[in-house]
Amino acid sequence: MARFDTPTEVVRAARATHDAGYRKVNAYSPFPIEELSEAIGFHKDHVSKTVLLGGLTGAAAGFALQYFTSVIDYPINVGGRPLLSLPSFVPIIFETAILLAAFGAALGMIIMNRLPQPYHPVFNVPSFKRASRDAFFICIKSEDPMFDQAGARNFLTGLGAKEVTDVEA
Amino acid sequence: MNKNFAAPSELGRLQSLVFGVGLFGLIGWVVGLVLSGHAREMFFHTYLVAYVFWVGIALGCLGWLMIQYLGGATWGIVIRRILESGAHTLILMAVLFVPIIVGIKDIYQWAEIDQIANEELRTLVAKKTAWLNPGFFTLRAVIYFAILLLLTIVLRRLSHKLDATGDPQNIGSAQNWSGPGFLIYGLVCTFASIDWVMSLDPEWFSSLFGLLTIAGQGVASMALIIMVCVVLAKREPMNHILKPKHFHDFGKLLMALVCVWAYFSFSQLLIIWSGNLPEEIPWYIERFKGPWRYIGLALIGLHFLLPFFLLLSRDLKKNSRRLVMVAWLIIVMRFVDLFWVIVPSMENDHHQAVKLSSYPIYILATIGFGGIWLGWFFWQLRQRDLVPHRDPQFEEAISGGSHH
């Protein structure tokens, strides 16, 4: 695992790592860097699907709730309007769709990131604490087909890393 | 990097092409008017629809021009020339407003109160004549155009100075004008939309109408900007400048404005529909009848739902070829929306002439008008370099790397 001090350096190093053929790579940064995930070849995640699923469920549930309360369970004639008054249903449908889409986003993110994760080998590196403050890390995993310990070490040092450490799995 | 940013010669051919298509539209318009049998009345009705459509795009360009100065985002730099050319057409639109004043009695019921058959409506409209009378209407239009042209010309002059001197002070001045300018622009657009469109139905009012119009202008002009960018991106010099990240930004802005338009439209419907008041609801009742009902449903599906779901995709927004198809859909639906808003108000007892078969004349009029508008627009666009390359943020705007 290699430490870098600026976002520009880490993005450049991540691109070089990807270009060198490493695929099982992880990058750590104190704040989101859009290019960083693209640089290590990370393109798609599936959170958008859980958001869509949550949104559609919310919309259906919002409609069902209103249909049940104002058409089936407690029909009231309001100013001669039909019981199934779609225009006035829309705001509630919208709200419940947003609510469940947000749940879908948060839960999907947490589950697919396998969080909460109280232990991870990278925590053994003392300077990794700085990953939430002012340092940027690139980690090449040993399961990468191109990985050999000395090669990866030399490669990361060659990219101008400030510090290269071995992480015990 | 190539330092020549002059417009490609193909723009000249494109200009001739739009003139040609426009001429075809104008001929079709005249033939349609003659065949309709009510040439005078139909002329002014179709003229109003075509005028409102194109003046909306011109105003939208002016609005985006001020917003991109205020925001200082880099997407604004690559389209600034397009916005300036679009805003410059307001000079043309000011002149082309004259026929609306000439035909005021053929267009607006309130201009000839004695002709209103319904006595109740006549009494009501008579009370509004302090505001709705031909003299004051004309004076207001003059004021609107004076303000709009002042903003256009000042911003244009500052941009010329920036090109000549490269002094970033000019950007600061443009921002200082754009702040209050945008506020005044909002008021002018609101008043103009009330005068030119809402007063077609002198009994009806909706306080959301101005904002709804501004949102519609924003969508239509952004769709046109995307189309022009796609044409330019295929040729020198813009093929080195316009990148997927720019189209991604335009796509996001288009989607945001589609949502704003839908939000305002729905809010207006919900408020009036819930209130169900006799002075407000007839406007919607008219539009829920006969063929208008299906046009209204088409607006929900094709002006909001379909573009919304398509524009959710990041890949689509970055792919200019697919984004431009959404832009075409939106431009067409903008016309349909204006048609749905304007035409039913002119189909009342005072104007019995209008029939279903006359609707294609509105399309031909808008195409003919578009030829003139786009001709002026491309003429302006060809005058100067296609990008303000002396803007201090220019390098950042065209760099492939950092996003925002």
Account of the 3D structure:
The complex is a heterodimer of chains A (169) and B (404). Chain A has helices spanning 7-19, 34-39, 47-73, 86-112, 149-158, and strands at 2-4, 25-28, 136-140, 163-164. Chain A has 169 residues and is of the alpha+beta class. Chain A folds into 2 domains: 2-44 and 126-164, no CATH class; 47-112, no CATH class. Chain A has a 4-stranded antiparallel sheet with strand order 2-3-1-4, covered by helices on one side. Chain B has one domain (10-114, 121-390). Helix content of chain B is 75%, strand content 0%. The mean pLDDT of chain B is 90. The chains are: A alpha+beta (169), B mainly alpha (404). Chain A binds chain B through residues 34-35, 79, 81, 87-88, 90-91, and chain B through 266, 269-270, 273-274, 276, 401-403.
Taking all Cα atoms into account, the compactness measure Rg of chain B is: 21 Å
Percentage of residues in DSSP E strands of chain B? under 5%
- Which strand order spans the largest sheet of chain A, edge to edge or round the barrel? 2-3-1-4
Subunit organisation of the chains: heterodimer
Helix segment tally of chain B: 17
Structural class of chain B, by secondary structure, is mainly alpha
Q: Which pair of protein chains has the largest interface, and what are the residue counts?
A: A-B, 8 and 9 residues
Number of strands of chain B: 0
Shape of chain B: globular
Note the run of SSEs of chain B as H and E. HHHHHHHHHHHHHHHHH
Low-confidence stretches of chain A: none
| Euclidean distance between termini CA atoms of chain A | 12 Å
Radius of gyration of chain A: 25 Å
The share of residues in extended strands of chain A comes to 5-15%
Provide the domain count of chain B: 1
What is the β-strand count of chain A?
A: 4
What number is the mean pLDDT of chain A?
A: 87
Q: Catalogue the unreliable spans of chain B.
A: none
| Helical amount of chain B | over 70%
